[in-house]
Design a protein that fits this description.
Blueprint lengths: L23 E12 L2 H8 L8 H14 L1 H4 L10 E9 L4 E12 L4 H19 L7 E11 L6 E2 L6
Antiparallel strand pairs: 1-3, 1-4, 2-3, 4-5
Helix pairs in contact: 2-4
Length: 162
C-alpha cells in the first residue's frame, strides 16, 4: 500500500507539494451512467424535457465540473486544463445514458479527479433536468477508465465493461 501523502507529520490533512514533480502530458478518461425509465429516455432523446436540451446542458455542466474540481474536492490542485471532452451514448436496451469524460493537460499532477468530477456533474445535471418526469433515476458505475502521464505511468482499467 502506498504511503498516505495527504497527511503531514502531525497526522493532519495537507495538500501535497507537487513543485518538484516533472511536468508531463496527462490524460484521464472516466465513465459513468444514469439509468431511467424508457419513457424518460424517450423524452430526453426527442428533446421534450421542459428544461431544454438535456444532453447539451449536461455536456456544458460536465466541462464546468471538471474545471471546478479543485473548488469542491479539498486536496485537489487547481489545474490549467488543456482540453475536456464530454460524450454520451444512449443505450436503449438498458434504458440508460452512458457518460464519458476525457480531460488532458500538461502539468505536475494528474487529471483523474477532473475526469471523475466531470462525469459526476454531467450525471447530476441529467438528473436535475429530468426529475420532473422521474425521480427514480439511478446514477452509478462512475469509474476511472484510463490515465496516462506522470510518474506512475499508464493505467487501463482491467474491467473494460465499466
Amino acid at each position: 500500500m502506498n504511503e498516505l501523502t495527504h497527511f503531514n507529520e502531525e497526522g493532519r490533512a495537507r495538500m501535497v507539494d507537487v513543485s518538484t514533480k516533472a511536468e508531463t502530458t496527462r490524460v484521464a478518461v472516466a465513465r459513468g451512467e444514469i439509468r431511467m425509465k424508457p419513457e424518460t429516455l424517450t423524452l430526453v432523446k426527442e428533446g421534450l424535457m421542459a428544461k431544454g436540451d438535456v444532453l447539451a446542458v449536461s455536456q456544458v455542466a460536465g466541462i464546468m465540473g471538471a474545471k471546478k474540481t479543485s473548488d469542491i474536492i479539498p486536496m485537489c490542485h487547481p489545474l490549467l486544463l488543456s482540453g475536456i471532452d464530454v460524450s454520451f451514448k444512449i443505450n436503449d436496451q438498458e434504458s440508460k445514458i452512458e457518460i464519458q469524460v476525457t480531460v488532458n493537460n500538461s502539468g505536475q499532477t494528474g487529471v483523474e479527479m477532473e475526469a471523475l468530477t466531470g462525469v459526476s456533474v454531467a450525471a447530476l445535471t441529467i438528473y436535475d433536468m429530468c426529475k420532473a418526469a422521474e425521480k427514480d433515476m439511478v446514477i452509478g458505475d462512475i469509474c476511472l477508465v484510463s490515465k496516462s502521464g506522470g510518474k506512475s505511468g499508464n493505467y487501463i482499467r482491467a474491467d473494460k465493461t465499466k
